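Justification of computing resources. Each target in the renewal requires a structure prediction run like the one illustrated here; the chain below, 463 residues long, is used simply to show the kind of job we budget for.
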Amino acid sequence: MAMTDTPTAATRAGGPGHPVTFRRELRLHSVLAFGLAYLAPIIVLGTFGVISQKSNGGTAGSYLIAMLAMLLTATSYGRLSHEVPMAGSAYTYVRKMVSNHLGFLVGWGSMLDYVFIPMVIWLIGASYLNAQFPAIPDPVWIAGFIVITSGLNIVGIKVADHANLVLLAIEVLVIALFVAFSIYAVAHHGQQLLSLTPFTGKPFDVLALSAGAATAAYSFLGFDAVTTLTEETVDAKRTIPRAIMLTALVGGGIFVVATYATELVHPLVQVLDIDSAAFEIAKAIGGAFLSTVFLVGLIVGQFASGIAAQASASRLMFAMGRDGVLPKRFFGRLSPRTNTPINAILVVAAVGIIGCFLDISTSTSFINFGAFIAFTMVNVSAISLTRRQIARGEHVNPLTGYVVPALGALVVIYLITELDLPALLVGGTWLFIGICVLVGLTHGFHRPPPEMTDSTEVEELAA
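Resulting C-alpha cells:
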C-alpha cells in the first residue's frame, strides 16, 4: 500500500475532535538532531570520571566498544523501521514480527524507560542548577523544565524541532570548546597529542575496558527514539533507517573524541571527586570561564534531551492508545489544532513531578531495564523479519539477517546482567504488573490483545 506524505484534513481530524495521524514534516537533519538531542552528547563529560576509573583510563576505548555494540542493534532497528514505517518503535516491531502478546510486554517495559527518562533528565538538570544556585530548591527548577518543555512539545513538533537544533548547536559548541582547551593544555605542558592510552587504558585490561563499555552503553540510550517519529517524517522508509545509524555513529564519534581529549589532559589535573571529574578538569584548564560555559552546556544538554525524551514518550503512548492497549479515548487522540498528543505529553509532565520527591540515584536505577529488554526483542524481531523475507523469496545477506542481530541480542543480554539489583527488582516488578494487565486484556490469554492500527491504512481510507 502506498505511503502518503501528507494526510488529508479528514485524516488528521479522524472524526470530530479525534485525530488519528500526524503530519509528515520532518526531514533527515531534523530527525538526526532529535536523536542526538535525546543522547545529550555533553553528558559524556558528566560521566567521564566513573568510566575512566572503571576502564583504567581507557574511556575512549570503552566508548568505541560500546558504539560498535550499539551499531549491531541500530542495524536491526534500521531494517525494521524500513519494513514497518509506524510510530511505536520496539513495541510496534515486536507486535508485527514476533507476537502480539510479546509486543505488548515490550511496549509495557519500554514505558518504564521512555516515560520516566524525562523525569530523570529534568531531575539531573535541576541538581546542576541547584548546585550553582543553592537558594533555589530543586522542585522550582524541575517545574520550570516541565512547563517550558511541555509547552514546546504541545505547540508542535516543528517548534520543538527548531528549539532542538539551536540547543544542540550550543551543546556541540561547548564540547568543541572543552576539547580545544584540553588539547591546548596538553600541548602547553609538552605532552603527546597522539596516544593509544585513552583507548587501551593503563594498564591495559580487556575486562576493565568491557566494564567501562557496559557503563558507556547507557550514554547511547535513546538512539532508537527516532523511530517514534516515523509517522511525522517525510519518506520515512529511507529517512528513519539512515537517522538511526547516523545518530549512533555521530553520537558515538562525539563521545570518543571528547573522552580522548579529556583522558589526555586528565593526568595533568588532580581530581578530587570522580563524579565531577570533567567539571574539575574544566576549571583547571579554563578557569571560571570554561567551568561556567561547561555548566551552561550541561543545562542546555539536559533541556534539549528533555524535549526529545518527552516527545518520544508521548508518541509511544499515543501508538499504544491508538491500538487500544492504553485507554483509547485519552491516549489515542491528537489535538486538531497542533496535531500533537497533548494528553500523553501532559501525562509525561505529571510523571516528571515525581522527580521532586526522588534523588538521582534512585530514579536512574530502573530506566535501563526497559530499554535493554526492548533492544533484545528488536534483534529477535530482525531475525524474524529475515525468515519472513526468505519465505517471500527475497535474498537476505546471512550476515545482516542472522549474525548481526544475534550478536546484538547477546551483547544487550550481557548489559542486562550488568544492571544493579534495584534496577532488576524494579524492572522485574514492572514487567510482572504488565503480565497481569495483559492477562486482564486478553481474558486469561483466551483472546489476542487489541489489534494494531496501521497508520498507512488509516491515511488511505481517509484520502
